[in-house]
Design brief:
The complex is a heterotrimer. Chain A has one domain. Chain A is built from 4 helices and no strands. By secondary structure, chain A is mainly α. Chain B is mainly α. Chain B contains 21 helices and 1 strand. Chain C is globular, with a radius of gyration of 18 Å. By secondary structure, chain C is an alpha/beta fold. Classes of the chains: A mainly alpha, B mainly alpha, C alpha/beta. Chains B and C meet through α1, β1, α9 and α13 of B and α1, α3, β7, α5 and α8 of C. β1 of chain B pairs antiparallel with β7 of chain C, so a sheet runs across the interface.
Chain lengths: 121, 426, 228
């Protein structure tokens, strides 16, 4: 589990810092420029980092996964909303896929493990 | 010992007996909620997690509701056009086209974001997260002179200040309670949202979410400052310690969330159907009469509304506003949504793009920010005013609130305009 | 035939969920008269009876101090609902039963909805519902409202309660009972507030409840004399 958490930490921290960097002028490809959104990812990465270095790994794993999943779902909804707006305005549907929708996949193991633990208890 | 304590003890004693015969403690595993709380209530992660979740809630509310707003906008624009083209009587056509569909319809465009904010709030409530947020913010709030228990009323203030102020009754300490009530109007209620959405959309396209959340944060920061100031100069003392009950976490159900959100949204709709409708008609009336002088509403400068606006103009002119903004802010006293409804009528347009063009003419990004800030701060709406009087009791305190809000609004707006001009000069 | 059913319980016990499950779309929201506290009312039809359900504010007690408690208390004492469904959080049962005790003192016709049974199990509690029911002298319906479990059984219990009114008597310890009896005798003797249950009046007078003292037109000194 800790090894997996390191992976998630690196991914989220990477994406988060890239978004912040793009927000203040850098031009990293495939990553949107969003200072606040980037900060949110960095906070999530901090949760996983905490899980790796401290005793409360399981708690951090669950909470971190849930919040990561929340953001993943959020951005999917945003994508759908933007497409709907385009359709209504009669324009072409241009979808901007954010990296957070992909990190959603990373969140699944944690969320599933959490659900399992709840039902067992 | 008071008999009240004797009775309480007696009841618990009996409860203990009854439970002793009917309950067995099988095991005490560390509950799931405790496990989660280890992270959520953490000294360092707690506040960042809170801010992150709040931001997600706002993003959800604004971005995902956009297509719904677009749909409503299209509907009312078409309806207004239809009315103006098909109703023979000119005055009636104007009333229905510009007044009703224009003014009121304009406000309803903002129904989706409001509804989505309520959905987000309901989800946070049902999961059981809110008391944790209150706990996490308590440390920060105490430093500012606010009591941790005021967190939830303050949060409710983001929906509407009226129930938020009433929710302060749960605070036992009178001083804590009064201070929380007095700064509550600075919590940006949902009625102010249309103003932010309009101006952020017009001048800060692409960054709406960030600008709007800054307004909310500004409100929070100002509330913090004013709480400290008020406590220091009028009450003294320290906030009392926080004692709170944390329910277990639970999975919110779709049904329950939608029901809560619907109930709160209903209140907004009822308001729309009554006060806002009447307000829109009044504003329409003021802006197209005297009919001949304004040529059916085209020459706005000759209307009664212009008269009112010009009376207020000298005060707001230094900030870069004209009489139209003056009228809009004036009507905001009845209900904050009318600020936007009035602008809609005054600029004589119904659709969102058209009004954005019209506004771009009279405002610039700096004055837009200043107007948003004034809307945030300047006065409680009529309904809030009533509740303030009832909850605080003394006119003195209510007067103090109005005074500080007007002053603060002017000062902060002036600062923003000042900084803006400074940046321009550079 | 219509019967009035009030829902009472601590905050956060699942009252809204149960209210919604019982009334569905047949509900309306308003305010309690004169205040800005939300009032929810709804209808639930069961067999030949129409339950008119009122959701009382979530409260911890029935003092006259907070507006929520006052609303709930006034409603139960004055409107005298046919049934009071006391929603109890099984995972916090000790604290929740405090309200139940007071409802029994008020001689309300109580049905206990024991909600969040899953959470109680999680916390390691094993509740003998039948024993609890026997000890309290009331119907106790175990439920998990969010999973829709127990709603039908609750309706049955409410239905039964409208046909058969229960009046359990719970005895506190001897010392307290002696004092209560003494005051209760005086209450009956002087016919004080005869439209309220005498035991309830006695307990409230002893607790120094402002409202009851004012209505009965006695002050604390007199009460103190009675017990000495």
């Amino acid at each position: 589990m800790k090894a997996y958490m390191i992976v998630i930490f690196l991914a989220t921290f990477g994406i988060g810092s890239a978004e912040i960097a793009n927000g203040i002028g850098a031009e990293i490809a495939f990553i949107p420029a969003d200072i606040v959104g980037g900060m949110a990812m960095v906070v999530i990465s901090a949760i996983f980092l905490r899980g790796v270095v401290s005793e409360e790994s399981k708690a951090c794993y669950y909470v971190g996964s849930v919040i990561l999943a929340v953001f993943g779902v959020l951005y999917i909804l945003v994508m759908l909303a933007e497409s709907a707006s385009c359709i209504m305005a009669g324009e072409e549907v241009t979808i901007s896929v954010r990296p957070e929708t992909l990190t959603l996949l990373l969140a699944f193991p944690g969320v599933l493990a959490m659900k399992k633990e709840i039902s067992i208890l | 010992m008071d008999f009240i304590d004797v009775m309480a003890n007696a009841r618990y004693e009996l409860i203990g007996e009854i439970l002793g015969k009917s309950i067995e403690r099988v095991s005490k595993p560390k509950s799931f909620s405790d496990l989660v709380d280890v992270v959520v209530l953490d000294k360092y992660l707690g506040i960042p997690i809170f801010l992150t979740l709040m931001w997600a809630a706002f993003q959800f509310a604004f971005s995902v509701s956009a297509p719904f707003s677009d749909a409503i906008d299209i509907f009312f624009t078409s309806a207004a056009d239809w009315a103006k083209a098909n109703i023979p009587n000119e005055v009636l056509a104007s009333l229905i086209g510009d007044g009703v569909f224009g003014g009121l319809g304009f406000v309803l465009v903002f129904l989706p974001p409001i509804a989505f904010v309520f959905i987000a709030l309901a989800i946070l409530e049902d999961t059981g997260y809110l008391p944790r947020a209150a706990f996490v913010m308590d440390r920060a709030m105490t430093k500012v002179g606010l009591h941790g228990k005021s967190f939830i009323p303050m949060l409710l203030g983001f929906g509407c200040n009226v129930p938020a102020i009433m929710a302060c009754r749960t605070m036992e300490n009178e001083v804590d309670r009064k201070i929380t009530i007095m700064v509550n109007p600075l919590m940006s209620c949902s009625a102010r949202l249309p103003v932010y959405l309009l101006f952020a959309g017009a001048f800060f396209a692409g960054y709406e979410g960030t600008v709007i959340i800054s307004m909310y944060l500004l409100g929070i920061i100002l509330a913090a400052i004013m709480a400290k100031v008020i406590r220091k100069f009028f009450f003294g003392g320290e906030p009392s310690p926080l004692l709170m009950e944390m329910p277990d976490y639970s999975m919110p159900t779709v049904k329950s969330v939608l029901t809560s959100a619907w109930i709160r949204t209903q209140i907004f709709l009822k308001k729309a159907a009554t006060i806002l409708f009447i307000g829109a008609v009044i504003v329409w009336f003021l802006s197209v009469f005297p009919w001949d002088a304004t040529n059916g509403g085209e020459v706005l400068e000759n209307s009664y509304a212009a008269l009112i606006g010009r009376a207020v103009e000298p005060i707001i002119a230094p900030l870069g506003f004209d009489w139209k903004a003056g009228v809009a802010l004036f009507t905001g006293f009845m209900a904050k949504e009318l600020v936007v409804g009035t602008l809609g009528i005054l600029y004589g347009v119904e659709s969102e793009e058209a009004i954005i063009d019209a506004i771009a003419h009279d405002f610039n990004p700096i004055t837009a920010l200043a107007l948003m800030t004034i809307t945030l701060i300047y006065l409680p709406c009529l309904a809030t005013f009533g509740v303030l009087k009832r909850e605080l009791g003394e006119w003195k305190l209510v007067g103090l609130i109005i005074a500080y809000e007007l002053l603060l609004a002017y000062i902060v707006a002036a600062i923003i305009v000042g900084i803006g001009c400074f940046i321009e000069v550079m | 035939m219509r019967k009035v059913v009030a829902l009472a319980g601590n905050p956060n016990v699942g009252k809204s969920v149960i209210f919604n499950a019982l009334t569905g779309a047949r509900q309306k929201v308003g305010n309690w008269p004169g205040v800005t506290v939300e009032k929810k009312e709804g209808i639930c039809k069961y067999k030949d009876i129409e339950f008119y359900i009122v959701d009382l504010p979530g409260i911890y007690g029935f003092t006259a101090n907070s507006i929520d408690e006052k609303i709930a208390r006034d409603y139960i004492l004055h409107e005298k609902p046919d049934v009071v469904v006391n929603i109890v959080d099984a995972s916090n049962i000790e604290r929740n039963l405090y309200l139940t005790m007071q409802l029994i003192e008020m001689e309300a016709n109580v049905v206990v909805a024991l909600n969040k049974m899953d959470l109680a199990k999680l916390k390691g509690y094993k509740i003998d519902v039948r024993k609890l029911s026997k000890e309290l002298g009331l119907s106790v319906i175990p439920m998990i409202a969010v999973k829709n479990e127990g709603i039908e059984e609750l309706k049955v219990a409410i239905y039964y309660a409208t046909k058969h009114r229960v009046k359990p008597f719970l005895r506190y310890n001897d010392g307290v009972e002696r004092i209560i009896s003494a005051v209760q005798e005086k209450v009956i003797e002087h016919n004080i507030l005869s439209n309220y249950p005498p035991r309830f009046v006695a307990i409230k007078l002893l607790e120094g409840d402002e409202e009851i003292l004012k209505m009965a037109n006695f002050n604390e000194e007199v009460i103190k004399q009675w017990i000495s």
